[in-house]
Amino acid sequence: MQALHTAATGMAAQELNVQVISNNIANLRTTGFKKQTAAFQDLIYEHVRRVGAQASDQGTIVPVGVDIGGGVKTVGTPRSMTQGTLSQTGNDLDLAISGEGFFKILMPDGTYQYTRDGTFQMDNQGRVVTAQGNPVQPTITIPQNASGITVNEQGQVSVTLPGSPTSSVIGTINVTRFINKAGLQPVGSNQFTETPSSGPPQDGTANTEGFGKVTQGSLEQANVDVVSEMSDLIAAQRAYEMNAKVISAADQMMQSTTALFR
């Protein structure tokens, strides 16, 4: 019976939906996390009686066809890149981007990855690095004994050196944007890589046309709405249960049909 297969595709789709929702909820407190949603499409139809076909020799046309659907399929888990709220931390090297853009990170193999997580620190060379020790680009090195680290909205990093009454700019942290930021590939550790879908990276100065501004002493929170996620979770659970009920009903119908031949 086709209903068994159709309902099974519905159960599989809702199982994936729950997995996506659970990942969103799990990352509720992950800095710079961007939530995902599951997108579905209906499967190919069996056209028992095609709409618009000729119904008689007199040329009458079928106004309504008989189409039996094959179920549902997952077509993607698109990621919402909307802005998360900024939370103040007061740490000099905690940075957040308000608007478009990502921080550019140099990986050990020479490639680049991109992140909205501005939880930066200094390594043993004084470089500004991620929690994994990978340097932010362009590389910023804080001189030894420097104090009063400030980062303005354009990403310019200034410090006060011993014996100097004024601060000095030692570098600029650029931001990178993409034509289709939702097309970036997540690789874990709050980082993404470019793909053919995202388009090439466009490096630029923060707080200029098309690029977001940098906010020091703040971090961007996940853009997950826990109330919405819980509502979606309940809806997915009920949809799964209804598909399971269809399988049970189809099984009972098959049992009844089988009993007629006994």
UniProtKB/TrEMBL annotation:
Residue numbers spanned by region Disordered: 188-212
Biased composition (Polar residues): 188-197
Flagellar basal-body/hook protein C-terminal domain location: 216-259
Sequence ranges assigned to domain Flagellar hook protein FlgE/F/G-like D1 in this UniProt record: 96-159
Locations listed in the record: Bacterial flagellum basal body
Keyword list, A-Z: Bacterial flagellum, Cell projection, Cilium, Flagellum
Sequence ranges assigned to domain Flagellar basal body rod protein N-terminal in this UniProt record: 4-34
Presence of keyword Lyase: no
PROSITE patterns, per database record: FLAGELLA_BB_ROD (PS00588)
A Pfam family of this chain: LlgE_F_G_D1
Cellular component, GO annotation: bacterial-type flagellum basal body, distal rod
Main location: other
BP-aspect Gene Ontology terms: bacterial-type flagellum-dependent swarming motility
Record's keyword annotation contains Repeat: no
Assembly behavior: The basal body constitutes a major portion of the flagellar organelle and consists of four rings (L,P,S, and M) mounted on a central rod. The rod consists of about 26 subunits of FlgG in the distal portion, and FlgB, FlgC and FlgF are thought to build up the proximal portion of the rod with about 6 subunits each.
Family in the record: Belongs to the flagella basal body rod proteins family.
Protein name according to UniProt: Flagellar basal-body rod protein FlgG
Organism the protein comes from: Bradyrhizobium sacchari
